[in-house]
Design a protein that fits this description.
Number of helices: 6
Shape: globular
Largest sheet: 11 strands, mixed
CATH superfamily of the largest domain: Hotdog Thioesterase
Number of strands: 11
């Protein structure tokens, strides 16, 4: 990040405006064609200072994903808070991949300490690791949240996205495709929970997160981007699983999730959570798996582990 040009934003950008701009950029690229030069990520980072959570929005988020009411920001809510800054990176004209239709592959989040809703935060984001995938090209978008008063990093997230069908010149498509590896045969265990997810969850999650990506909002808008129907937000699913892990996770943890198959709406999703104690008998980690209870197809896997 030290070699990146820092671009300061006066406030959190509007995600709806960013998506409109992304649609305009996509139309422009279809007409004019993409860049013919060597593909590269923009050497910039975006940051916004003095960000505070909206209490009503926090309450609505907690209710939607099943988190207990608390003055502490859930890790998934912090991701949503930082997401407009991450989107600003991907929404640039010189970003080599199309934003619309991007597939969410993985998240790795480090929650270093609890965040009270009244704390003033600084948010930064940048992109890295433009690599090949057998289905296209993937990229990591990094977001960091620091305390405005001290500069201490309290939350860090790395989101991996795939631009399916986009093969950039000079990017080896046989390269790093983490999400396609290690998928052993899956035999569903007895679930610890069964979710019933309605057709409007995409719009409900968009209302509390600001993420109005068309693939989540309706059948028509999803079909316009090549899907057979609308799908649930990956971070809604991951955050709901984190809520199901419960208070055992404590205040500081690593949280990983890898997405394998989309959840088309409406849906029933089975979830299994297994907990592993440490040598002292305290909680060490929880592993979770979610799948389609009818077909047995796995949707995502994840782990929440205590920080050392």
């Amino acid at each position: 990040m030290s070699n990146l040009q820092e671009i300061g934003l006066t406030e959190l950008p509007s995600l709806s405006k960013l998506y409109l701009n992304a649609a305009a950029t996509a139309a422009r690229r279809r007409i004019l064609g993409g860049s013919t030069g060597e593909p590269a990520l923009p050497a910039v980072s975006y940051h916004v200072r003095n960000v505070r959570a909206d209490v009503d929005n926090l309450t609505a988020y907690q209710h939607l994903v099943g988190e207990s009411a608390s003055d502490t920001l859930p890790a998934g809510f912090v991701h949503a808070l930082a997401f407009p800054v991450s989107m600003s990176v991907m929404n640039r004209d010189d970003f080599p991949l199309p934003l619309l239709g991007m597939i969410h592959l993985r998240n790795r989040i480090e929650q270093k300490s609890p965040l009270h809703f009244a704390k003033s935060l600084d948010v930064s984001a940048w992109s890295e690791n433009l690599t090949g995938h057998k289905a296209g090209t993937q990229v990591d978008v990094v977001a960091e949240v620091t305390l405005h008063a001290t500069g201490a990093t309290v939350w860090r997230g790395v989101s991996t996205y795939l631009a399916k069908g986009v093969f950039l010149p000079g990017i080896d498509k046989s390269g790093n495709h983490q999400a396609a590896t290690g998928r052993e045969d899956f035999t569903p265990p007895d679930p610890t929970a069964l979710w019933r997810i309605g057709p409007d969850i995409g719009r409900s999650y968009a209302a509390v997160s600001g993420d109005f990506n068309p693939i989540h909002l309706s059948v028509l808008s999803a079909k316009a981007l090549g899907l057979r129907g609308s799908i649930a937000h990956g971070m809604y699913l991951a955050s709901r699983a984190l809520a199901d892990v419960g208070p055992a996770k404590g205040d500081a943890f690593n949280w990983d999730v890898a997405f394998e198959a989309p959840v088309f709406l409406p849906a029933r999703v089975a979830l299994d959570i297994s907990t592993t104690p440490s040598g002292s008998g305290a909680w060490a980690r929880s592993d979770y798996t979610a799948w389609n209870p009818r077909s047995g197809r796995r949707h995502f896997t994840g782990r929440v582990a205590a920080l050392d």
